[in-house]
Amino acid sequence: IRKLPLALKWMIQNEEEAEGEISSFAALCTALSATIGTGNIVGVATAVCAGGPGALFWMVAAAFLGMATKYSEGLLAVKYRIVAPDGHSLGGPFYYIEQGMGKNWKWLAKLFAFFGVCVGLFGIGTFSQVNGIASAINGFFDPDNAHCVKILPFLGEYSWSVVIASLILTVCVAAVLIGGVKRIASVSQIVVPFMAILYFAFAIILIICNITEIPAAIKVIVTAAFTPKAVTGGTVGSMFVAMQKGVARGIFSNEAGLGSAPIAAAAAQTKEPVRQGLVSMTGTFIDTIVICTLTGLSIVLTGAWQVEGLEGVEVTTYAFQQGLPFPPAVSSFVLMLCLVFFAFTTILGWDYYSERCLEYLSGGNLKHVKVYRWIYIFAVFIGPYMTVSAVWTIADIFNGLMALPNMIALFVLSGVVVRETKAFFKKQSGK
C-alpha cells in the first residue's frame, strides 16, 4: 500500500540502459493480457451469485495479499533470470526454484513447468477462453440459433456466428503467435490498455448513473461479508462460502501465486529486481481492485445477482442493460466486445507462458516450441466445439497444481525478497 504510488509511476516509466527483451510496461501488459480475461466479467458474476455480495469484499481483501505475492514473484523472476544463447531472457518459477533453492530442487521446477504447459493447452489458455468468445458472439448475433450449419457428420449443428468467429479468431491468434514474444507484447500494449479503459469507462458511467445507490450497496457488501444471512436470507450459505467464492474467483482472475506473471516479468528491460516487482504488483491492483470491483459493484447496484435464471455473463449483461443510460443492444454489444478482447489477449498471454514452460522442460529445444505453437493454434480452432464443463474442472485442478511448487519457492525464498527490498530502498534513500 505504501509503495503503490511509486509502483504506478514506474509502471509507465521505462528504465534506461537496462537489459531485457521488452519494456517494463510491455511486460506488465503481457502479464495483464493473460490475467484480464473472462474472470473479470464472468468470474465476478459467478462469485457474487454463488457467495452473495460479500464475496466481492473478500475478493478485494485477498487482492491486497495477492499484490504482495506478485511483488515477490516479479522480484525473484528478474533476480534469477538467465539469458539464452540467442539473446532472449528466460525466467520464472522454474529458474528461481533451480537457481535460488538449488539444483536438488530441479524436480520441483520441472513439475511447475509441466503443469504450466497443461494449464496453457487444456485450461485457461485455449478451450475456456475460445468458448467464452464464441458464446458471447453467438449470444449477440444469433441468440436463437436460427442460422445453423452441420460442419462434420460427428459434430452437432452450430450457428454460423460460432463457425465464422472460430475461423477469424484462429487466423488472428496464428498471425500474432507466429511473431513470438515481441509481437505478443506489441499487440498487448495496444489491446490491453484500450479494452481496460473501454470497460472502465462504461462501468464508471453505470456507477455515476446509480450514484445514490452506492452507500446502500457498500453496506450490503460489507454486511454480507460477515453476516450473509442478514442480506441473503441464508440462501447462499455462510460467511465461509462468501469468503471461499470471493478468494477463489479473485485468484482465478489475477493469478497471484500461480507463478504465471513472473514468466512475463523476466523479459522486462530492467536492472533492478525490486523495481520490476513493484511494476508486477500493479497488475493485481488493476485486475482485481479496479476492474473486478467495478464489475461487482455494477452487479450489486442493479440487483442483477438476485435475478433468477441468470448465470455467468448473463448476470453482467443484465447489470449493464439495466444500469447504463443506453439502449440494451448498445450495452450488450460493448460487453460482448470487452469479453472478446479480454479472452483474445488471455489466449496470447497463456501461449507465451506455456511456451516458456516447454522451453525449460525440453532444455531449450525451440523445435519443440514451434511444434507446440501449431498445436496451440489448432486447440484454439477446435475450442468452440468442445464441451467445457470438464475442461473448466481440469483447468481448476491444473491451476492448483501449478500454484503449489511456486508457493513453496516463495516461502523458501522470502528471506531473499526481504534482503533485496531493504537494500534497494536504502540505496534509493541515499541518492
3D structure, described in words:
By secondary structure, the chain is mostly helical. Helices cover 74% and strands 2% of the residues. It is built from 19 helices and 4 strands. The protein has helices at 4-11, 24-35, 38-51, 54-79, 93-101, 106-122, 127-141, 160-177, 180-209, 214-226, 228-232, 239-254, 261-265, 273-301, 313-323, 328-361, 366-382, 388-412, 414-430, and strands spanning 82-83, 89-90, 148-150, 157-159. Strands 1-2 form a two-stranded antiparallel ribbon. A two-stranded antiparallel ribbon has the order 3-4. α6 (106-122) runs antiparallel to α16 (328-361) and α8 packs antiparallel against α17. The longest helix has 34 residues, at 328-361. It is globular and about 55 Å long. It starts with a helix and ends with a helix. 54% of the residues are buried.
List the keywords:
19 helices; 74% helix; two-stranded antiparallel ribbon; 431 residues; globular; mainly alpha; single chain; 4 strands
* Weakly predicted, low-confidence segments: none
Helix/strand class: mainly alpha
The tally of strands reads 4
What can be said about the biggest beta sheet? Answer: 2 strands, antiparallel
Strand content: under 5%
Write down the secondary-structure element order.
Answer: HHHHEEHHHEEHHHHHHHHHHHH
Arrangement of strands in the largest sheet = 1-2
Radius of gyration: 21 Å
Q: Mean pLDDT across all residues, rounded?
A: 83
Dominant shape: globular
In a few lines, what is going on in this structure?
Helices cover 74% and strands 2% of the residues. It has 431 residues and is mostly helical.
